Structure formats: C-alpha cells, structure tokens
Amino acid sequence: MTVPTPPQSVTVRVPAKVNVQLGVGGRRADGFHDLANVFFAVALGDEVTATPADTLRITVSGPDADQVPLDGSNLAARAARLLARRHGRRPDVHLHIAKEIPVAGGMAGGSADGAAALVACDALWGTATPFGTLLELAAELGSDVPFALLGGVALGRGRGEILEPLPAGGTFHWVFAVADGGLSTPAVFRECDRLRDEAGTGSDTAAVPDPQPDPALLDALAAGDPVALAAALGNDLQPAALSLRPALADTLRAGADGGALGTLVSGSGPTCAFLTKDAESAATVAAALTASGTCRSVRVTHGPVPGATVTGRR
Ligand code: ATP
C-alpha cells in the first residue's frame, strides 16, 4: 500500500462579498446589531498559499499589501493558530496572501483570508476537518468568515454568522469602485446609531424593528433577474458611510449616470458596488467610473461564485 505524500504547498482561492441587502437592527445590550444580511460572493478574490515553515509567518503581495498586518492579528494567522490548536499541533506554516480584495473596503477581505487559511492549512496538514467544524471555527474568528467558506448567496442572521444558503438563478455582473483609504466597520455602525438617535427614532433594539429579508430581493436572486435585483438592493449602513465619506455620493452618481441598473455602498464601505445588465454593460459602467475620477480603481467582476476552494496543490 502506498502512503500519500503530504503536499508541499496548497493554494486556496477565496471570494470577496457584497451585501445585496444589509438590514441593521437596533444596538443590542452586547453592542452588536442583529442583521438581515444577504451575502453574495463575487469572483474578485484573494489567493492564500500555505507552505510548511519553522514558525507561523505571513507575507502579502498586491496593491494594498502595505495596509495588511503581518503579525498575529492577521485573520489568516489567527485561523492557522485556531485550527492547529483544534488538532493539537503547532501552527508552523508560511501563509502568503496574494491580495486583490480592497483592505477595509466593506468586502470582508480579512475574513476571506481567515477562511482561506483554514482550508489551506487543513489540506496542507492533512487534518481532514469536517466542513461543519470549519464553519464553527470560522464563526469564532468573525461574523463574516463562515460566508467566505460557503460562498454563493446566503442569508446571514444573528451577527451575520448564522447562514442559510439561498438559490441564485444565474450569473450577475458587477462593477466595484475602490476608494482611497478604508472605513472602520465599528465606526460606521456607531455612525448608524448616531444618525438614528439624531433623527429621533432611537437606536436600540426596542426602537428599531427586527430586520427581515426582502421577499422581492430573494425572488430576484432566485430568478436571476438583474433588473428586479437592482430595484431591491438595500444597505442600512449606506447613510452612515455617506455621512462619514460624503464624496461617495459622487461615485454612486457616476456609476448610475454610466448606466448601472442599481448602485449601493458595499457593506460598511467605502467600496461602491454597481449591478449591471450584462458583461458588456459592466465594461461601459467601468469606463464611466474611471473617466469620472471619483475613485482610486475600478474592478469588473461577476457572481455568485463558490467559497474558499483549493485551486493548487504541489
Ligand atoms: P468587513 O466588510 O468584514 O467589515 P472590511 O472589508 O471592511 O471588513 P478588511 O479588509 O477585512 O475590512 O480589513 C479590516 C481590518 O482588518 C484592516 O484594517 C486590518 O487591520 C485588519 N486585518 C486583519 N487581517 C487582515 C487581512 N488578512 N487582510 C486585510 N486586513 C486584515
């Protein structure tokens, strides 16, 4: 009987997400907010390569590499430590992150790298962790990490970590406008609470109705209908992101004027998302956004795509 030799390196591709609906409930006693969060995985993503090493080490390449922490706080490093502890081994691995997802851009890039590192280390170490256990470990790392494992389209309840996969009836075409600099997710939630208090509606769970997924949005996704999906897009964090970064209104307008069916701030921003009719229309919207000079860079992509997946093994 031949014993399989362990791989010398494993590469995992992982998608970024856009929230096609982000319903934000009131602030709970623990400071978090209940969400009705419809996650959508797009082909724009990172690649994480795991190779054996004497000690845990992180390296990063890509346009935003200088903004990514290389120490133990990196979500990929935390994921490697968590998985190693679960299997009673040392997290002796080199993780290289080829970073395409904008950092602090509202596209869950750090969470994506955490999910990718779980999958890459599990394959490198031959630990064969059941998918359900990987999902539990992912939820320990952060609310957005389980979705990066799952991919596709899913409804996230609780803080976003309780996931229900949703049907999607086709491919949707997206353009993303990447802004200069990031926005801190906790700061955007605080601004959302502040705006609700200022408006006199209140910001706690007693004042804000429990967010619910929009049936029209779920139908549009299932039907693969971009016009209906565009009409139903919604992000309760958008007013807060615009309040902290008013210039994003110019970016949204430029994409709408360029022919996008629907526009929204992605998650907590500042990346802006534009849903288009088809691939050709996406190229036209991208050109209009580039010409507008209202963003740092423009990315054309599509989805839904699968979650963290092994794409290379040597
Ligand atoms: P979300 O949409 O989940 O709120 P985000 O996309 O706005 O997140 P991230 O790109 O995940 O933001 O980065 C948020 C912060 O997380 C960064 O400023 C950085 O300090 C930290 N961080 C930790 N690990 C990573 C990683 N692997 N890649 C990027 N940022 C990371």
From TrEMBL:
Its EC number is 2.7.1.148. Pathway: Isoprenoid biosynthesis; isopentenyl diphosphate biosynthesis via DXP pathway; isopentenyl diphosphate from 1-deoxy-D-xylulose 5-phosphate: step 3/6. The active site is at residues 17, 144. It is an enzyme of class 2 (transferase). It comes from the Bacteria. GO terms for molecular function: 4-(cytidine 5'-diphospho)-2-C-methyl-D-erythritol kinase activity; ATP binding. Residues 218-292 form the GHMP kinase C-terminal domain. GO terms for biological process: isopentenyl diphosphate biosynthetic process, methylerythritol 4-phosphate pathway; terpenoid biosynthetic process. ATP binds at residues 102-112. The keyword NAD does not apply. Belongs to the GHMP kinase family. IspE subfamily. This is 4-diphosphocytidyl-2-C-methyl-D-erythritol kinase. It comes from Peterkaempfera bronchialis. The lineage of its organism: Bacteria, Bacillati, Actinomycetota, Actinomycetes, Kitasatosporales.
